[in-house]
Write a structure and sequence with these properties.
By secondary structure, the chain is mainly α. The protein folds into three domains: about 90 residues, Fumarase C, Chain B, domain 1; about 230 residues, Fumarase/aspartase (Central domain) (Fumarase C, Chain A, domain 2, Up-down Bundle); about 80 residues, Ribonucleotide Reductase Protein R1, domain 1. It is about 60% helix and about 5% strand. The chain is built from 20 helices and six strands. It has a two-stranded antiparallel sheet with strand order 1-2. A two-stranded parallel sheet has the order 3-4. A hairpin with a 2-residue loop joins strand 1 and strand 2. Helix 3 runs antiparallel to helix 4 and helix 4 packs across helix 5. The radius of gyration is 31 Å and the shape is elongated. The relative contact order is 0.10. Bound molecules: arginine (ARG). Arginine binds next to helix 7. The site of arginine has 10 residues, from helix 7.
């Protein structure tokens, strides 16, 4: 392929004797995806220009022209009329070039005391900060949907499982509130991560700072940052804030993946605990009877995708010497996709939780058939003076007996139970019922319906605080 003559209009053309190869241009350009940062790039440029003027580095007329030009560019972008050019590599150069085309000389002064290195780091931080704020609202909406469903089912008995074997009775409300707690920590982690995202890199310039008398604190204030990054080399090069955010996102997805796995299991006709509204399911093209839980399955699948992004970002960072390296251009797609995937997942999930119907009878039957109150019988014997290990053994034998008769412990006659321990008397049946078992776990964090209702009340209050 023939090379075109040396271009004279690229930003660094003076240093080069031939234009960049077409393939290389496409390989190195990021404008296809980083144009998503445009509004934040403009926001950063406006704050930078205002500071340059306040510090007498550019004139008042320059600032006015820059403001006017950037406002026009913002309109063009929002209206979808901005012409993005691959030749101009990335979002920063595209906007700067257009600014100069609109306002002339002043546009060329905007990049004073700045480099694309501190510029891009600033843009991503601004973008991610806004994304975190949006995600927090979505987490809260899902938490609220969980609280609503938990409230309807504060008394609904279901089997609690360990090793996926029936363990002890719990309420469905209690089970749902476990996920509420996970999301509470997830939101907390995001908020904490936001503090470290919210620092200003601008002023670091290419890597070492700048010789102009800039005022970084002013720019930080104007952009709503909590402060400035305190080392210029670190400011332009590290993306730990993006990695940390993606780790937070992967954890939210992991929690939702666990819940998805349960929804899928509960919806299986073999279990039949719940049904998910038709609008979240699909049929089969060949098997007319099928109704598949596609949404939870996809959430489970997309968890792998977000966890993959975390691995990509960690790997991207691990061998980079200080300071900026072009490797960092690869931070954007995983980060963008993480935010998009998580936002869509949270939205659909909140809606889906409102579309769940519960088969209380199936849940109850499953708890009843699994000897879920065996521990209660052991505890009963302990309270009558038997050491716990011995009580455990007594109950194990009683369960075996009941299993042989294909009945529940509560269905055994008092005479039969007495065969296993003389300590048993008529009051035993109160602890062998599912309700008796639930109500006895009446302390903070326990599954007693009163405690579940208290947890829901605390949860409602808590989510009002953010
Ligand atoms: N598009 C680049 C990125 O995303 C912007 C910074 C480029 N800096 C440079 N020195 N080539 O990282």
């Amino acid at each position: 392929m023939q090379q075109k003559p040396a271009a004279t209009d690229t930003t660094w053309s003076g240093r080069f004797s031939e234009p960049v190869a077409e393939l290389v241009k496409r390989y190195t350009a990021s404008v296809e995806f980083d144009r998503r940062l445009a509004e934040f790039d403009i926001q950063g440029s406006l704050a930078h220009a205002a500071m340059l003027e306040a510090c007498a580095i550019i004139g008042a007329q320059d600032l006015a022209a820059i403001r006017k030009g950037l406002a026009q560019i913002l309109d063009e972008i929002r209206a979808g009329k901005f012409e993005w050019s691959l030749d101009l590599e990335d979002v920063h150069l595209n906007i700067e070039k257009r600014l100069t085309a609109i306002v002339g000389e002043a546009g060329k002064r905007l990049h004073t005391a700045r480099s694309r290195n501190d510029q891009v780091a600033t843009d991503i931080r601004l973008w991610l900060r806004a994304a975190i704020d949006d995600l927090l609202v979505l987490i809260k909406a899902l938490q609220s949907a969980l609280l609503d469903l938990a409230e309807q089912h504060a008394d609904t008995v279901m089997p609690g499982f360990t090793h996926l074997q029936v363990a002890q009775p719990v309420t469905f409300g209690h089970h749902l509130m476990a996920y509420f707690e996970m999301l509470k920590r997830d939101a907390d982690r995001m908020r904490d991560c936001r503090r470290r995202v919210n620092r200003l890199p601008l002023g670091a310039a290419a890597l070492a700072g700048t010789s102009y008398p800039i005022d970084r604190e002013r720019v930080a204030r104007e952009l709503g940052f909590d402060g400035v990054c305190e080392n210029s080399l670190d400011a332009v090069s590290d993306r730990d804030f993006a990695i940390e955010f993606t780790a937070c996102a992967a954890l939210v997805m992991t929690h939702l993946s666990r819940l998805s796995e349960e929804l899928i299991l509960w919806m299986s006709p073999r279990v039949g605990f719940i049904d998910i509204a038709d609008r979240f399911c699909t049929g089969s093209s060949i098997m007319p009877q099928k109704k598949n839980p596609d949404v939870p399955e996809l959430v489970r699948g997309k968890t792998g995708r977000v966890t993959g992004h975390l691995m990509a970002l960690l790997t991207l960072m691990k061998s980079q010497p200080l300071a900026y390296n072009k490797d960092n251009q690869e931070d954007k797609e995983p980060l963008f996709d993480t935010v998009d995937t998580l936002a869509a997942t949270l939205k659909i999930y909140a809606d889906m939780m409102g579309g769940i119907t519960v088969n209380k009878e199936a849940m109850r039957q499953a708890a009843f058939q699994g000897y879920a109150t065996a521990t209660d019988l052991a505890d009963y014997l302990v309270k009558k003076g038997l050491p716990f290990r011995d009580a455990h053994e007594v109950v194990a034998r009683a369960v075996r007996h009941a299993e042989g008769k294909r009945c529940d412990l509560s269905e055994l006659k008092l005479d039969e139970l007495l065969e296993f321990s003389a300590l048993i008397s008529g009051d035993v049946f109160a602890v062998l019922t599912l309700e008796g078992s639930l109500n006895s776990r009446n302390h903070i964090g326990g599954t007693a319906p009163d405690q579940v209702r208290a947890a829901i009340r605390r949860g409602r209050k808590f989510i009002e605080t953010y």
